[in-house]
Amino acid sequence: MQDTLIDWFKSFVPAPLNVAPRQWLRAAVGVALVVPLAFISDRWLLGSSLALQVIAPVGASAVLVFVAPSSPFAQPWSVIGGNFFAVLIGISLGLSGLPPVLAATLAACFALLCLFSLRCLHPPSIALALVAAVGSAELHELRYGLLWPVTFNSLLLVTFALLFNNLTGNAYPRARLPRDNEHRTRDPRPGERMSFMQDDVERALAEFGEYVDVSRDDLARLIKQTEKHALRRSMGEITAAHVMSRDLHWHTPDVFIEQAWQTLQGNRLRSLPVVEGDDHRLVGIVTLVDLLKHFHPRPGRLSFGQLKFLRGTKLRAIMSSPVVSVGMDTHMVELVYLLSDRGLHCLPVVDERQRLVGMITQTDLIAALYRNWLKQLPD
Fold this sequence. Notes:
Layout: H1 2-10, H2 21-46, H3 48-67, H4 76-94, H5 100-117, H6 123-134, H7 137-140, H8 147-167, H9 198-208, H10 216-235, H11 240-243, H12 257-266, E1 271-276, E2 281-287, H13 288-292, E3 295-296, E4 308-309, H14 315-318, E5 326-327, H15 332-340, E6 346-350, E7 356-361, H16 362-376
Parallel strand pairs: 5-6
Antiparallel strand pairs: 1-2, 3-4, 6-7
Helix pairs in contact: 2-3, 2-8, 3-6, 3-8, 4-5, 4-6, 4-8, 5-6
C-alpha cells in the first residue's frame, strides 16, 4: 500500500523531456511570427477590443502546430474544422437566451462531442466555443459574422505552419506510412512479416481504451524505432565495415556500356559502382536492368547472345545518380532496412569524402546475419 502511494505521488513529477532544445527554440520562433500576424489581422477585421477576445485561442493553437506538429490535435483539419464548428455551436448557444453558465457548459460539451464525431478535435476550439457563447455584448452583435475572422485565423495559422514546419525540417502534415510493398502485391513488406501489423496497432489502441495524443502512423513509427534499438542492442556493434566487400569492380562515367556488360557478366555481378577521379569518388551506379534497357535486338528470333548494345552509349548517360550509400559505421540494423524494405539489392559504402570503399549485397547481409545468429546459440 505504501509503495503504491509513493508511486502515485511520483506520477506528479514532470516526465523527462525527449525533445532537443533547438526544437523548442524553433517552436518559439514560429509562435512569435504567427501570433502578431493573427492579431494585426483580427484588429483590422474586428477592432482592438474584439481582437483581444479571440487572439488567446490562436496562441494555444500555435503552440500545438509548432511544438507537436504530428499530434492529431494539430492537423490542418483539426485546426480549421475544429475552430469553425466550435464557434458555430458557441454562437448558436450564445444567441439562445440561456443563462451564461448553462450556455457555456453546453457550448463546451456540444463542441467536444461534435469535434470528436467529425474527427477534428482541437482543444483551443473549446475555448473559442466558450468565447462565442459568453463573450461581450459587442462580440454577440457580430452573431454568425464571427465565423469569418475565426476561419481566417485558422487558415492563416495552417498556411504559416505548412511553410514554417516543412522549411525547418518538420513534416506537416505528417505523411502516412506506405501500406503496399514495392512489388505491388498484397504481401506485407519484408521487414513487417515477422513484426507487428497495422491491425495490431488498432487492437492495442482499442484495448488501451483512452484517447492517445499520437497518430496511429506515428505510434507505428515509434514502435519500429523501439524494435530497431532493441535489435541493435542484441546484435552488438556490427557495422558496414564488418560486412562489406572491399575488393571491388568499378568503372568511370566515360566507359561504354559494352564494357560494363562484360564486367557484370564475367564476374556474376548485378550492379556496378561508377566512380570519378583518382580518389574514386562515387558518382553513380549501374545495374543489369539499366543495361538491358539499352539493348538493340537483331531481327528474327531473340537470344541473349544475339543482343547488341546501342553504339556510343556511355555509363554517364544511363547511371543512377545520386546513389543511396552508407558510411562504414552504419549499423547492420539500418542495412537490413535498406536492403529489405527499401528494395535495394546492394549498397555502396563510402567514407567521409564520398570515396568508394566497399559494397554490401543482400548476400553479404544474409551471411553476416547467419554468423551473428550462430554466435548467439548456446554452447
